[in-house]
User: Fold this.
Amino acid sequence: MNINFRRYREQQGMSQQEVASRLRISLDQVRHGEQFPAKVPMGLAMKWIQVLGVDLAAAMSEETPPLQGIEPGFPYAELYRRLELLNQYINETPPLDEFDFPTKPPLPNDVQRQIQDYYQKPNVVLTGEFDTGKSHLANSILGSKNLPESYQPATKLITIIRHLANRPHWFNADVWIINEDFWQDEYGKHTIDLKFLDDRKRCEKHRLYSGSFDILEKYAVHKYDNSKTEIGGHTAIVYLDSPLLKACNLIDLPGYSDQPDEISKDVEKANSATQIADILIYTSLAKGHINGQDMPRLTNLLRLLPTPENESQNFPTLGNLFIVATHADPSISNTELPNILNNASARLYNHLNETAIQKRREATNREITLDDVRKQFFTFWTERPDRCQRLFDELTKILAEYFPESIQCRVDREINAIKNDNKKQCAEQIEQYQQTLANIEESRNVLKEAEANEPARQQEMQQRRNHVRKRIKELEQDTEKSFQRYAESVINVNSIEQTIRKRYNNKKEAQEYVAGYLVDLLQSNLETSISANSEKLRAEIDAFLEGYPQLKLPKKDGIEVSIPFDTKGAFLGGIAGLGAYGALAAWAAGLGNLGGYILVAKLVSLLSALGISIGGGTAAVISFIAAIGGPIVLGIGLAAGLASLIFGLFGEAWQNRLAKQIVKYFEEQDVYGKLLRGNKQYWQDTATAFEKGAEAVEAAWKDNLEHLRELVSPDTQSRERIEEIIKKLEVLRSFFADIPWTIQGEG
Assistant:
């Protein structure tokens, strides 16, 4: 029975505790029954309505109105139509044989592979502390009741919800539950990539259970009364016919623990999946909205969040961040509710203004004000449409208008880079091979000189390689020393006491927030130092690659032609797929639009999966790398420990005593050590990636030399070989030149 127990109780002016006492049940049972009346047993429901003084016939005759959900339409219809035309163009292109020479240009198949990424809808990720109603919110915006809801912490699996139209024909159920190994890529890295969901072999290999929505209740939630039903599942894959899902995928995460360790399996799952959020919805109870444990989480989540503002100037500032005050029930008055949002947004802004928000300013080149932050705070209570409507309206706008526009801008930019830069690259290679063909004897002389110079070249490149290795180590040490100096200036009793007096009006507020704020300062400083030193390394990498000699033919008619050797392309190919780049991610992003390199296997798809927009600039890359690969969130545990302290009424000022406790806690928790271990790992990843890239360039150089040897050898049909290559390149140049794609609005 869907009896509105809550409304009848409020009409009687009774508290939940009073109802619990009269029914002789727990307060939790009352809360659960009010939220999910259909799950209340018949006998208990009869007693309940008697306690509330409600007529049985009237109560049972009421119908619960259906949830409307969000209906953003299908905003990608035109984009998909254009992509289909592009696919058709590629399919109608006669097949091209592989190019068996070192500097291999991308082929139509590579373009088609990249196009598949453009069919991926944005991911709306729901996250927040446990018991804040994430699954109930998910059901509400979906307009369904298929996800299990519970008053107690429920969701224990990552739940990925996609539109029914995206379900593969072999996916023969509403729900599959898969294990953690499903997300392991070919390089052994744990990567949540929704393209894996279209891989039948992978899905069937890692499937644990499949069935109707009932298995979510059975296997995807915590069973506090029967641990025997717990399984080793990691992710639930759900397909629904919901209007919302035409514009996005929805991902409901397990709640964050309220324990200071933050290392439970649920939290690990939540942390792994937030990396793929395009749009983030963070839930926090209206009562006690945005507490000391929310702050560090939001700090890292904001650092991870992509910046669609960089693709479309129309995209609202911070428009893909939604902070929702859930359980905004009628016990909170209409005048009190705005104050809750205003106070919480002000606390968040003050907490992050110098750190994560400042990083966001740098990444987007936009000013971010308190009012911008305030606009991203919303309320949610399903029985009061006025407390849900703004959330639904703004989320609809983002999904229906702003995000599709940003995606369209990115696709336009990338496809036109593929089209124009590869056309240009083919033309240059054709010119180079034509010159080689016209100057075979001169080319042979160039080869002889290169072969004679090879020992000296190898020695010089080894020296350059050693220099870069040394610089990586120096930059790691410089980062560490710079951070230590800063940490010593911030984490001492006098400095902390001044911070407390300046920022916090009372003891409770200081105990709850100051530890997270200080950790955020440390993390931000380390990020800044890493970013600056990564920029320095970019120049070193460029200098190393420029050290490779260009094989140049003698000038003819005033024109000097180089025999092709693409050091940057070779280097990119070497590091692509590693999964951990360190500072070389900054180097790759610094190449700008990547143009001809955008089709390097795994590189762009990996950076995109990390939320890094190619061309978005180094700041976004460094912010991501530092947040995930380096510093660790410590503020939650520290805040919990400090909040439990009791200060006496006499003696030193409480600010001084709290400052001393913070210094002690930071030492006990080894805050510096954990942050510096993150720094060490970052530069180790940098060194590993550099070695892989350098090895790839060296191998490509030797292949290039061998290719030239083949072309100019009198013992082979060199002229025919060169002519064959030129013909292939001419076909490929025409393919790229004729790609049917123009930027929308330009004809």
